[in-house]
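Q: I'm a student working through a structural biology exercise. My instructor gave each of us a protein and asked us to get a predicted structure, then write a short paragraph describing it. Mine is NAD(P)H-quinone oxidoreductase subunit 2. I'm not confident about reading structure output yet, so if you can add a plain explanation after the tokens, that would really help. Here is the sequence I was given:
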Amino acid sequence: MDVVNLSAQLNAAAILPEGIVILTLLAVLVGDLIVGRSSARWTPYVAIAGLLVALVALVFQWDIDNPIAFLGGFNGDALSVVFRGIIVLSAAVTVPMSVRYVEQSGTSLAEFLVILMAATLGGMFLTGADELVMVFVSLETLGIASYLLTGYMKRDPRSNEAALKYLLIGAASSAIFLYGVSLLYGLSGGQTRLTEIANTVLAEGGDAPIGLIVALVFVIAGIAFKIAAVPFHQWTPDVYEGSPTPVVAFLSVGSKAAGFALAIRLLVTAFPAVSQQWQFVFTALAILSMVLGNVVALAQTSMKRLLAYSSIGQAGFVMIGLVIGTEAGYASMIFYLLIYLFMNLGGFICVILFSLRTGTDQISEYSGLYQKDPLLTLGLSICLLSLGGIPPLAGFFGKLYIFWAGWQAGAYGLVLVGLLTSVVSIYYYIRVIKMMVVKEPHEMSDAVKDYPEICWTLPGMRPLQVSLVLTVVVTSLAGVLSNPLFTLANNSVTHTPLLQSALTPTNAEQVSLQSSQLSGD
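A: Happy to help. First, here is the predicted structure for NAD(P)H-quinone oxidoreductase subunit 2. I'll explain a few features afterward.
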């Protein structure tokens, strides 16, 4: 009987998608050990298939009867399902981006895929972690795998330097985060479940203890590092510039999505007593990230550094939804991350293609690219315009939803800063597009003059082509046909008890009023 009860409390079925990713990881690892370097012909397809099967399994995890697993350590609610889907999808798009890039560097593709799936696992567990130990173990799994990916090009000094910087700053942020978590553990009298910590602290009554404020500061520092928010962004430009470009693409979407999922679950569940304080801190982080990220991007000469500062600014936009703490705010965060997945990865695919063909990522070298590669120019232009928020592309509707939610909640200052910095971002995005399109033939850069003949039949190029077409098409159509994504984002909030209980009083009253009207009808 005890075994039956234990099995029921473990509820391993809640992590079926993670189990599929683990099996895929083992299949790639063992296959590479048996077959050797020739396994590169089929391991990417095994990895993509496993990740897509995990994505299908996540669909069946929606609204399951018992989402709590591992004695309360993991919560597979609708919120975690959506964020796990974003992370899995970002990994699935990153794999075909990596094939040609990794093989051309002379390193093992299978090992790269194994580490990438390990990072994916860490992010997936982090989005549903409901207990301090699982939070930290998941965070470190994601972090250590990210350090390994960053330094994967062992022969490249820039990759080694980026990995060392990332490791040192990441280790410091992990220590800071762990100290904040240990304070939470002590304040709650030895509890590790997030809900029990909050209940213990609230049961004491009165003002929030000073220890809780200190814990909040350290926890926010750890989260801000993961989402690359100013002033915890120092690692981002150097790591983005030196790391392998497919790794940067995954970090900019998958790692960032995991960080925002952690922020929502940890802050909403464990820190309800100091919600005004953490909202104030994130307001400051959002303003700093939007201003610094978009202003400093104006002066960048490297495409990867430009996208690094762009990602810092994008994190500031997403934080608006977290700060306002309304149903529309949380839904707008999820919707924006869903479309950011495709437009940002699409931009990185174009950067990879250009660097593979020319060996550089300097913005000035893109001059006159339209004359030699119209498809690449079109794809990069659409992705950059979407990141800037130009209608009718997906990025416009994402920003519109976030700004509308902020305006409805009364965060007028944040919305105005967001609008102004969006205008700034449009300038540096269009500067790149103008350089590619407007330049006369005699003004072509040397890299474009020596541009090789376009050949998609080379090993690893066809997956890149498919990824480029997929991301550009979704970026183009997701704005006009955004209703399914809107519905998914809204349903993920309304089907998550954690967020429903944390709605601001105004929203809660509106929800109850709507419910009473429906019941009356």
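A: Here are two points you could use in your paragraph. Strands lie at 68-69, 74-75. Confidence is low (pLDDT under 50) at residues 504-521. It's a good idea to check both against the output above yourself.
Q: Great, thank you!
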